[in-house]
Amino acid sequence: MFKKILRIPYSYGAMAFLAIFLGLSIGGYPRYSDEITMISLLIIMSLSTREVKFKKLRSLKKHLGDFLTVFLLNYGLLSLTLVSLSYLLFDDIQLIQGMVVFAVVPSAIAVIPFTSMLDGDTELSLVSSALLYLSSLIIAPAVLLLLFGREIGIWPILRNLIILIIVPAIVSRFLLKIDYKEKDHDDIVVNTGFFLIIFGAVGANRTLFFTETGLLLPILFIAAVRSIGLASVVHFGGKKLKVSTDKLNSYTLFTTLKNGGLAIILAVSLFGAKASFPIVLGFVFDPILVVYLKRFLLN
Question: Which residues contact 95 (CB under 8 A, 6 or more apart)?
């Protein structure tokens, strides 16, 4: 029992559920919430983006067709599903804004280790991840300015993208330069960072969990469609089209996973804490999705 407790920091799912439970029980941070979440994500992104090998872009011609497929799945199918369902199911503009932010961020860095774990095409995932992050520097500000430009302006968007994407990318190259190898404690650091982000966001939205219970079902419905629903559609569709198993596994991951930590901080900084509510609640489905993919869909 004691050994299982000691293993909790190594489990993203366990840390996410613990953060939600404590956030609902005692609320978030009394102060410096924005600073804590920003620093946490900077550390997470700096460690995680070591996985993104920009040198792999030299083989872009080889993977251009695959990247276009990934782009259509992540920024086409997934993003349009998120935006369409949010406008359909929500009346509150802040919730819609939060889901739009979630839609315009790139794929989760976790796609890369999950690709290895689920026997996907690792090189395809590495190249596509790098290109998606570069693409997000154009897509995110363009879409947010088009829809909400009068409210926020361009500088807050660019400032956050520079701090949360470009700076960690530079730090990660420095870590690779000094030959910083991945260590066991990296998992603890990354999972603790996600704990701090989720705990703060849940605490900031604690009142909504108990007073706006009518929002829980549509938010969880969107999360289920975004994760298990789209994963199943793409997987079985790819099987019908006779897509190779390794590529299909990678495609399925890109169809379901967005960078939730980045989306939470962008949503809060641009539109307020309530905008992060549907993103935070959607985290509940990520551990469920991983189990579903590993044990039932991509086995």
Answer: 86, 215, 219, 274, 275, 277, 278
**Domain count across the chain:** 1
Q: What is the mean pLDDT of each run of 10 residues along the chain (299 residues)?
A: 71 82 84 83 82 65 85 96 95 94 91 82 86 90 87 77 84 78 73 87 85 88 92 92 91 92 89 91 78 74
Q: What percent of the chain has pLDDT over 70?
A: 91
Domain membership flag for residue 93 = yes
Rg of the Cα trace of the chain?
Answer: 18
Q: Is residue 1 part of a domain?
A: no
Distance (Å, rounded) from C-alpha 297 to C-alpha 291? Answer: 9
- CATH number of the domain that 179 lies in? 1.20.1530.20
CB atoms < 10 A from the CB of 205, how many? 22
Is residue 5 one of the residues assigned to a domain? no
Instruction: Give every CB contact of residue 175 below 8 A, 6+ residues apart in sequence.
Output: 46, 47, 50
Residue 123 has what pLDDT? 83
Q: How far apart are CA 263 and CA 257, in angstroms?
A: 12
Residues of the domain holding 238: 31-297
Q: Each residue of 67-118: pLDDT tens digit?
A: 999 999 999 999 999 999 999 999 999 999 999 999 999 998 888 888 877 8
| Rounded Cα gap, residues 81 and 73, in angstroms | 10
Burial of residue 272 (CB within 10 Å: 0-12, 13-18, 19+) is middle
Spatial contact of 41 and 276, defined as CB atoms under 8 Å apart = no
Per-residue DSSP letter, 107: B
